[in-house]
Amino acid sequence: MSDSAVKAPEACQTMTEVRAGVDALDRELVALLSTRFGYMRAAARIKPSRDVVRDEARKASVIAAAVAEAEARRIPADVVADLWERLVEGSIAYELNEWDRTRG
């Protein structure tokens, strides 16, 4: 986290510190999601046809990679799988909307 006043999780001593860290991290996560959706806009621009937007093999690969990363970091892989399922489906919907908006 970039905010110098925010403590690392292991250094937190109060719930105020924990909440400050969570809030700062949430802002960073939204910024990262903004970049991810930028890649979805790029994909909509690059893909030659609307019917190639949904790629089930790629979806499965992205989710599997996130689950493997979660397992390696010893965080709940089932939660990460659920989050990534929603993230990827939302990304596909966004990309389809962008494809229609710019080329449909």
The first-level CATH class name: Mainly Alpha
Radius of gyration: 17 Å
Please state the average pLDDT score.
95
Return the structural class: mainly alpha
Shape: elongated
The CATH homology group name: Chorismate mutase
Question: Number of helix segments?
Answer: 3
Order of helices and strands: HHH
The percentage of residues in β strands lies in: under 5%
CATH architecture: Up-down Bundle
Distance between the termini: 40 Å
The largest β sheet comes out as:
none
Report the count of strand segments.
Answer: 0
Fraction of residues in helix: over 70%
Q: What count of structural domains?
A: 1
CATH level 3 topology: Chorismate Mutase Domain, subunit A
Q: Spans with pLDDT under 50 lasting ≥5 residues?
A: none
Describe the structure.
The chain is mostly helical and 104 residues long. It has a single domain, classed as Chorismate Mutase Domain, subunit A. 73% of the residues lie in helices and 0% in strands. It has three helices and no strands. The longest helix is centred in the N-terminal third of the chain and has 32 residues. It is elongated and about 55 Å long. 7% of the residues are buried. The mean pLDDT is 95.
Structure at a glance:
With 104 residues, this protein is mainly α.
Task: List the main descriptive attributes of the protein structure presented here.
elongated, 3 helices, Chorismate Mutase Domain, subunit A, 73% helix, mainly alpha, 104 residues
